[in-house]
Amino acid sequence: IAYFLVAGAVVVDKILLKRSVPSPLVYTIYVNLLQIFVVFLIPFGFSLEGSQATYLAIVSGLVSFFALYAFFHSLKLHEASLVSPLVGAFNPLFALMIEWLFLGQILNIAQYLAILVLIIGTIVFTHNQWAHHFRPNRSLSWIIISGLLFAVSFVLLRQALLQTSFINGLVVSRLAAGLLAGSLLIMPNIRRQVLEHHRNSPLTSRSV
Length: 208
Prior knowledge:
Radius of gyration: 18 Å
Structural class: mainly alpha
Oligomer: single chain
Largest sheet: none
Order of helices and strands: HHHHHHHH
Number of helices: 8
Shape: globular
Helix content: over 70%
Number of strands: 0
Strand content: under 5%
């Protein structure tokens, strides 16, 4: 169900980036500003904590902002059917490496095989497209960076959720991303770009 919903979201993102908001940075700001609406979850069990989990959730949210920017930049350059599977393959690969290097987490053989199948399946599924599109340029770098940053964000959020409630982790991480987006509007150049698109502000496919 999650993959189905993400696929639909990516297609909508691609359409909006092509027609309504051609700037990946502006679109990233729109998406993350909408995440501030997570405040409506506060009455459902949120409690402000000055714990390590809070700091991990904040960093996770900030990293997710840049992960989305790299993802939208990739989506601007290539088809959704190419970008989404590749980012989806790099994500667990990098997450596995991070957890192994820094958290000492070891998976069982079945889990390693599952990740391997996911990566091989992605390569087979997208081979004709990336072999044709990716020449000596930096376009693939954005996909790799996006996969890496998403992995960092998810690992940090996972560690936060191990120490606090789901509501706390979600609210803090999403607010951090939203506030970062809002703070960027202080910069005149970025604010001008956003205001140029305010009349065509999209109803984004992503809210969390």
